[in-house]
Amino acid sequence: MAALPFDQREGVIFMDGTLVPWKEAKLHVLTHGLHYASCVFEGERAYGGRIFKSSEHSQRFKASAELLDFQIPYSIAELDRIKQLVVDRNNFKDCYVRPLAWRGSEMMAISAQNAAIHVAVAVWEWPSMFDVAQKMKGVRLDIAAFRRPDPATAPAQAKAAGLYMICTISKHRAERRGYADAMMLDWLGRVAECTGANIFFTREGVIHTPVADCFLSGITRGTVIELAKRRGIEVMERRIMPEELSGFEECFICGTGAEVTPVSEIGPCKFAPGAISRALIDDYSAEVQPKQRAA
Q1: What is the mean pLDDT of residues 114-133?
Q2: Whole-prediction pTM value?
């Protein structure tokens, strides 16, 4: 049975200061954010009805807008309150939270300083993608043809809609070829990230992860690095070349959607999901639960 389209679901969405019925949350076709990608967003999760690291996401949301030269008309505290209100009003416990902000339809040209700034928050149910046994089998990654751009050519530290165009293309290609996702290189041919998740490798008990300069250093990424350090595991953020992949033992990806998911294969390279991946899966699961955070 096909999933219900996202414009046909039930519930409420916050839109420009009020909660509106889900199916009424609409915008005009001549909206600047649609034509010129002047749109930023966040991807968050609520566990047990509480949003994990909500304020960190709100801070990045506002910072992303500033990088795209507009201001979100709510404070971090107000954004946190709005997001939690939408979760509560939809009566969800484990769900995905999507705030977004965009320039409106007052101006339809590249220049749009006087376009109104709109803000919406939607949530939908999204349980964990895999159980631990499934995760420990590892997912298979293709190698993307597109590369993350030089940070001198794009606002790489913004979670901006336009930056995901090559991610969609790359993920479609990977799925057609039988892979779960694709690993992207940066503009100089070094390992960067996946289409919607950061990537880590292990060798001799040390975790290695690419320097996040042309892609987002994800909030989940930061959490995983912190959890690894709590266990006394060394984490090296460094340049990683594709020819190094065959020398790593484990590989895993992390993100709001993926949480912590081991990788079994990247192109011709094989990995064995093992003790470090399992430990971080368990630690992340404990970290995001409200009762654990409150302890």
Answers
A1: 87
A2: 0.94
